[in-house]
Amino acid sequence: MKRRELLKAGGIAGILAATQFPLIRGVWAQDRYAKYRGQTVVMNIPAHPHYDAMTKLLPEFTAETGIKVELDKIAIGRMKDKQLLEMAKPQGDYDAVCYIVMWKTEYVKKNLIVPLEPYFANAALADPAYDMNDIVKGYLENLGLVGGKKGYLPGPGAKLYGLPYGAETSVLAYRKDIFDKHGLKAPQTYDELQKLLAPIKAKEGIGALTSRGQAGHQCVHAWLLHLNPLGGEVFDDAWNPAFNKRPGIDALKLLKEISDTGPAGIPGYGQGEMINAFLQGQAAMYLDSILIMGQVNDPAKSKIVGKVAYALHPKGVRYASQSGGLGLAIPANAKNKEAAFLLLQWLTSKPADLKVTKVGGNAGRMSTLQNQEILKQYPEFAILTEQLRYVEPDWRPIIAEWDEINIQALGVAVSEALTGKKTPEEALNGTVPKVTEIMKRGGYLKS
Amino acid sequence: MSAVANKNARVAWLFVLPAIVIMAAACLYPVISAVRLGFYEWSMGTPWSQARWAGLTSFQIAYTEPAVWSSLWTTLKFASVSVTAEMALGIGLALALEGNIRGQAAFRTLFILPMMVAPIAVGLTWRYLFDAQFGLINAVLGVFGVAAKGWLADESLAFAAIIIADIWQWTPFVFIMVVAGLANVDGSILEAARIDGARWWTMTMRVKLPMIAHVLAITLVMRLIDAFRVLEVIYVLTFGGPGASTEVLSLHIYKTAFIGQKLGAASAISVLLLAVVMVLTWLALRMSNPLADSEGDR
Question: pTM to 2 decimals?
């Protein structure tokens, strides 16, 4: 059934056909790599826990394939500028790049990255055991596909441009000791979540729920986390701003309440501060990326080892957890495209996904999430597997204009509502003209 | 002028010509490129051949956008408060450490350390210091019974935070410049003033500071230019927030260029920033006019 759905989506039909085709199944791994032995793949990656874990696997890749890997590791905030400059050159220095999901449509629009179907369809390169269907569907659609519905969702015209690697969704983490002490139950709905905020702050004297809040991307991310489950959307189907409708305002009011009942300083919190407040015992709940799972039980970072349980991202009018994170793509101006593809394929294969998860990376395949050994190491993957059913690929509009809307329009408005400078209604309604102007400039709306 | 003098002048020009050519190319080329870019619509990651001539559109849009003027106002407030404080503190410290006091060398080294730290590291350090939960500043305030504050979560406090960080980093620059200036003050003039009965205050205000007025003017200009270009520390510390309360012009230019992908508009705003800095520089130099004075001294 899953396979049929993917075929219907059209985006990765070619790949599936290629990987299932009997004539090309018999290509031996050593043949695949022989031609590229001695080549060096230059890869641009961020300083990020998943890529730290990946780095540990690279010697094995080189030993197995003879392909060397050179890493250019930079701060995630600087990655896009650097990649744009490199990929605009006739021949760039990068053979593979890690990208944030929001960049995929822009990169494709500017012809900076290449579709991966031709590589997966190439019998000399494709790994017959790859099993594309095993990759978490929501991750693959969210990070990989460009050109379908809305330009970034599955559907006719969608092509695979990247592979999820370091993808994530959102879960609720909560302090089981505090909840048990006060006889509380983990919230299953947004109503239940909201009702817990003030009492936890009053009873325990710490923040109820930690959250991002810094102006720009951070506060918008926090607001979107609630907007989607509450039934909201940033744009309607005709690309008119819809974020200022009731669900958007409710989500912002809730975020303000979370900020007021949370650990002090949320309007200045980036992701690091948000996570740190929870790990240092200053908040009873965390509702954000699964990145937290790898840190909670690390005594070097956490004061709450063994005290945390997980639950699904609460339901509003629907379940809808975030879809985001990182993927891997091949620049159009790469020198060693085939070798880069072999590296991407190897890293996202079943065995490598299992290995990277064992050493602290994000799981990207269902087989990894259901692996008994992994489940022993990370019992919370049971909740994660369930949560993945509710990943919302349309969690935010992945259009080339999003960065500007995210940071320079909504990022200011949401921040001003959090500090109380404007009411949520004033903040969001006041942003509609600016967002409309950006959408007109982008050609989504008529001038 | 004699033939020998003429020849000497020509030789002198010949020697400095390469430096003049290199300086002109290094300074003028980026400025001309930036102005030229302002007339085009061009997105990063696309070839220049795809750039579209936009005429004055970018300048019109850039200068009618409220965010440009509000960020310019924020920059003016930031520069005036921080540079005034830095000048006052830098001069005060230099005067305090001017005489033969014990541990003078150690103090001087200590004071100039912040200036040597990379701006990104300064931003990160202050971000931790201002942390509402775990920051040292709230911990110290707590000792005096002051309630913890969300430094980076409140518009006024965040503005104060970026000024404090800038003062911490750049007061040493003023300090070094003033120390160097004071070291060059002619001792006989100071001696004469002392014999005339001048006390510390009179000596400082009427003799020392006027004598290093040129140094102070140059220092002021350099600090103003730097304050108008400040980016990294604010980028890390607040990213312009909360709201847009700490979004200075250079951060707005950065966001316009690299987030909004409007390189033409960003260049147009850069021209505005350049004009403001040039006017301020001209005013500051005119106030003291060191070159004219030095001509007269000759």
Answer: 0.87
